[in-house]
């Protein structure tokens, strides 16, 4: 069966081809009721726009670039699901590229996306991205840009993420409320803004409860690849457990650090939470089925991706724009408390 055309939709709805085209582009010239009729009919009949013809006529590619650190974890996958849903609903394709936590690779990704003529860029900056001059340069060329997940107060831009400080504070506070006092933290490079915010949340929770911040309980993993990260987690946990006064609880600041830590503890024969309690940022759907079930700071990954894409599409279409005004959206997190951070009956509260 031949693909449905704009002319087919126009004939079926007794509208002009121009009206149908404008309705599908969400033009302000078309009323809401007419837009809904056209969009509903197009969806019901599986209308697919001719992207090549559209790009040639309008000078637009109909595509959005997405730069992520890596696709190999569940949190990123859920964000991409949210982005895909918003892009599909608005008629955009997405081109996904991976920085692999490398600033050099991130810059290369952006150059490739620019060469492909993307209409806008969604980016979760790499661990090596300490300044944002290359992103400012991209925006100065007229390409709309939205940061997602790894948001940064130091870079004026539209952004969508969470309150990283609050998530870390609440996780650490939960451990303290359960009677733990020797609380360690495992984080990535402190130069990364979101990681710094989580470190500050951990430190501020200790301070609020008059618990000393002990440098020997803090470890950082500066690794750009998954194998290197696993090795760093292994080394960090071993060194923590070998301290004269080892920690009785551990807060892990990223999804991968959390799951790797649980694995290493099992390999070392640590009983969780009897020997050491564990809570961390993680979005794995298996958290409740791990042994023991893992307490987590849950981030709304799908919604982060969806809201970021919706915001970028508004920027591309020139909606709700104000000169030199940028909005940062922080979506709420929640604590999912499970057995890994509980206080067992034979543990004395200090």
Automatic annotation (TrEMBL):
<dbReference type="InterPro" id="IPR000843">
    <property type="entry name" value="HTH_LacI"/>
</dbReference>
<keyword id="KW-0238">DNA-binding</keyword>
<dbReference type="Pfam" id="PF00356">
    <property type="entry name" value="LacI"/>
</dbReference>
<dbReference type="InterPro" id="IPR028082">
    <property type="entry name" value="Peripla_BP_I"/>
</dbReference>
<dbReference type="InterPro" id="IPR010982">
    <property type="entry name" value="Lambda_DNA-bd_dom_sf"/>
</dbReference>
<dbReference type="GO" id="GO:0003677">
    <property type="term" value="F:DNA binding"/>
</dbReference>
<keyword id="KW-0805">Transcription regulation</keyword>
<dbReference type="Pfam" id="PF13377">
    <property type="entry name" value="Peripla_BP_3"/>
</dbReference>
<dbReference type="InterPro" id="IPR046335">
    <property type="entry name" value="LacI/GalR-like_sensor"/>
</dbReference>
<keyword id="KW-0804">Transcription</keyword>
<protein>
    <submittedName>
        <fullName>LacI family DNA-binding transcriptional regulator</fullName>
    </submittedName>
</protein>
<feature type="domain" description="HTH lacI-type">
    <location>
        <begin position="4"/>
        <end position="58"/>
    </location>
</feature>
